[in-house]
Amino acid sequence: MEAWAELGVFTPATIQLAAITLVSLLACYFIFNIYNFFFYQSFRMATDGVSLDLPENTVHISMNNDSCTLSYIEVSPTDGESKPNILLLHGQKFNASTWDKDTGTMSKLQEWGYRAVAVNIRDEYTSQCTDGSEENKAILVHKLIETLKLKKVVIVSPSMSGTFSVPYVTCGRYDDEIVGYIPVAPVINSSYSEDNFKKLKLKALIVQGENDKLPVASRSMKLLQNIPNSNVVIIAEAGHPCYLNQPIVWHQHLRDFLSTL
Description:
Elements: H1 2-6, H2 12-45, E1 57-63, E2 66-75, E3 85-88, H3 98-102, H4 105-112, E4 116-119, H5 123-126, H6 134-147, E5 153-158, H7 162-170, E6 178-184, H8 194-198, E7 203-209, H9 215-224, E8 230-235, H10 242-245, H11 247-258
């Protein structure tokens, strides 16, 4: 210790600097955790519906001589009524359980009489059976729908999941599978133009949060508004994950749209 002191390591100035650094790091740690607590609690307190605490199932997808296993959660209508099936995808920071535990959307869809499947779908989950190309992502969504035996499908696609849903809905090969599309500020590759969306025949509900200032939101809105049979909904006092910020309003628009199919 004396040797270190002789070298000037443990001087009053360095000790004071170390103490200030430690206190600053601890303050940042506590502020970060307090922010996260209230950030996520605000989502939970706003939940419209109940969490069903749904167990995860797995589905095995084979394509291109490869395969991958994806996990999903599912609800079925209690009355057995034949309605469109809902396929819910998710954003980069979220997962399938977001639609159950954080928004209550799965319980609402079951209450309204729909079969709904929320799938964990990210590049890290799907890389074993797709090379990441637009064509392969479209095929993957088709295989998912086919394997899960979904009928008259409505796809709910926020943010990152647009990299899967947009290739699927615009490729023109699976128009008989899908009856509705609900993009929520989805990511759209730069290779797409307005012409890709002008030709779509499906019915769409285009959703965006009023306070969503991300570049992906403005670009997607500009392109998606070219879908001929579409309506635009801007959810007030909501950001990029508007379905989390305002779940009651989200569910009102979701139910109204589904009732028209």
